[in-house]
Design a protein that fits this description.
Length: 344
């Protein structure tokens, strides 16, 4: 008969052996599995039109929510938003917001950073020769086999003319857009063209179609056009707020700001789409001479981990997935349609 002490020793040894075998088996199983994606976050600087008014009316919020739902280990944070030129200046002047990805309201500003401040930009498709692929596994790649990618386009916006009090539609009885001779439409609100691409489009329409004299916006040395609210607004969201709160009777805004589930304008408001020179001649719209409001992005040279680099590449892929019918719409296409954008 074994003593009670001997039994306890043997039971303890057996338990230890079982634990070791179980642990070795688990380690062996885990070694055959792809590593879990590492937790990471990337920061964005987002142009006002795509930032909107979160969370209820924000294209970027919808995209981030969909992306995080598919990638629970990754988060995306907007650390700066505003006029495109302001965001670019913030990056050039030290990037205090630690921006990893800049989503502009035009393509010229990302290209300017690429050409004139190349040390500030980074490829978004390379992460120290490693990448996180769609099968949820890490793989080593020879980065020389894939040319580095810096710039991409993600949306094309539309300019809209909005009133809080007047009928500016082309329907029976409406004024059919802006009328510089109508005292009820004075002054008109626009975003500052020196800061905002939608302000540039507004300026092109007002000077090219309606013959308003430049400069439209006042500066420290030059007065602005009296038909235009002075000073011009710092970004397109500020121009929208000015119309909604009655600071101006009419204004040029981003269509996305007054679009809900693909239709516009918001309830109780009157609006008219001003399509670019490439826009179609649809009833109730006006085709103008401004260049298409194609919006581009650029990756920024910020210190990142390999997991953050992988997330950055995945997020750009997510934002440039324009899959649509006959296949189901991608989350990006669904968002673009919801906010009256077009795919670039």
């Amino acid at each position: 008969m074994l003593s009670s002490h001997a039994k306890q020793v043997m039971l303890g040894a057996a338990a230890a052996a079982i634990f070791m075998v179980t642990s070795l088996a688990a380690d062996a199983w885990n070694s055959n599995q792809p590593p879990s994606p590492k937790t990471a976050n990337i920061n964005l600087a987002v142009a006002s039109n795509f930032y909107g008014v979160p969370p209820a009316n924000s294209a970027i919020t919808d995209i981030i929510t969909a992306f995080e739902a598919e990638n629970p280990n990754w988060t995306v944070t907007v650390t700066d938003n505003g006029a495109t030129a302001t965001l670019a200046a913030n990056i050039i002047n030290g990037n205090k917001a630690k921006v990893d990805l800049f989503l502009a309201a035009d393509t010229a500003t990302p290209l300017m950073l690429y050409l004139e401040h190349f040390n500030l930009v980074a490829p978004y498709n390379s992460s120290n020769n490693s990448s996180y692929n769609s099968s949820n596994s890490w793989s080593n790649n020879n980065s020389s086999s894939t040319p580095p990618l810096y710039l991409f386009n993600y949306a094309t916006g539309v300019l809209a003319f909005l009133s809080n009090t007047l009928d500016v539609s082309c329907d029976l009885g409406g004024t059919c857009g802006y009328n510089p001779n109508d005292p009820n439409q004075q002054p008109v609100g626009i975003a500052d063209p020196s800061l905002a691409p939608y302000g540039v489009a507004s300026q092109t329409v007002l000077t090219g179609r309606y013959d308003l004299a430049s400069p439209l916006c006042s500066s420290t040395t030059t007065p602005g056009n009296p038909h235009v609210k002075q000073p011009c607004y710092a970004n397109i969201t500020a121009a929208l707020s000015a119309v909604l709160n009655g600071d101006v009777p009419v204004g040029f805004v981003a269509m996305s700001a007054i679009c809900s589930n693909g239709t516009y304008p918001m309830q109780g408001k009157s609006a008219l789409a001003y399509f670019s020179i490439e826009g179609g001649s649809t009833a109730g719209t006006i085709v103008n001479n401004y260049n298409p409001l194609t919006q581009g992005g650029v990756a920024i040279n910020e210190r990142r981990t390999s997991a953050q680099d992988a997330e950055l590449a995945a997020f750009v892929d997510f934002m440039t997935d324009f899959t649509t019918s006959p296949s189901p719409d991608s989350p990006m296409i669904a968002t673009l349609k919801k906010f009256c954008y077009n795919a670039p």
